[in-house]
Amino acid sequence: MYFLDPSIVCLLTRQPSLKASISGAMGGALFEGVIVSEAVKAYLNSGKSPDIFYWRSHDGLEIDLILQVKGKLMPVEIKLTSTPTTGHVNTLERFKKIVGKDSSEQGLLVCRVDKKTMLPFNNIALPWKEFYGFVKKLIR
To answer: CA 109, 113, 119 angle in degrees (round to 5)?
Structure first.
C-alpha cells in the first residue's frame, strides 16, 4: 500500500526528522512512495485516470511502477542512488524481455542523479525532480 502523503508515513512511524527518515531503514520505501504519488498527481492533473501498476512475479522479480501509455508499458525502478550502474537496470531488462518489444521498449530508473542520463539497453536514469514533468509529457 502506498500513502500519497509521505508526511503521514513519517508521523505514523515516528521519524525524528526528514534527514533521519530518508537515510534510515525506511528511506527507500519513503522515496518510492513519493515517486508513485508524483505519477498519480501527473495523471490526475492531466484529467486522466492513473494507468499505473506494480508487478511482482512468482520468482521475486519486482517492478516498482509500471506506466501504461498509448498501448505500451514503461517499467520504472525507483532507487535512492545517485550513482546508477548497469545492475540497476537488470530488473527493467528482465521485465522488457518477458513482455516483449511490442509492449515495452524503454525502462526508467528514477533516482538522485543530477541530469537525465542514458543507460544501457534503452533505459534512462532520470532525476527524481523531473519525474512529474516527464510523466505529464509522456501521457499527453
So the answer is: 45
Per-residue pLDDT tens digits for 67-86:
998 899 999 999 999 999 98
CA–CA distance, 134 with 40 (Å, rounded to integer): 13
Amino acid in position 4 = L
Q: Within 13 Å of residue 78, how many CA atoms lie on the same side as its CB?
A: 22
Q: Give all strands of the β-sheet with 62-69 in edge-to-edge order.
A: 52-56, 62-69, 72-78, 107-111, 123-127, 117-119
Go through the domains of the chain in sequence order and give each one's CATH number: 6-138 (3.40.1350)
**Residue 66: strand pairing partners:** 53, 75
Q: What is the pTM of this model?
A: 0.90
Q: Give the end-to-end CA distance of the chain in Å, rounded to a whole number.
A: 27
Hey, CA dihedral for 40, 74, 94, 55, is it positive or negative? positive
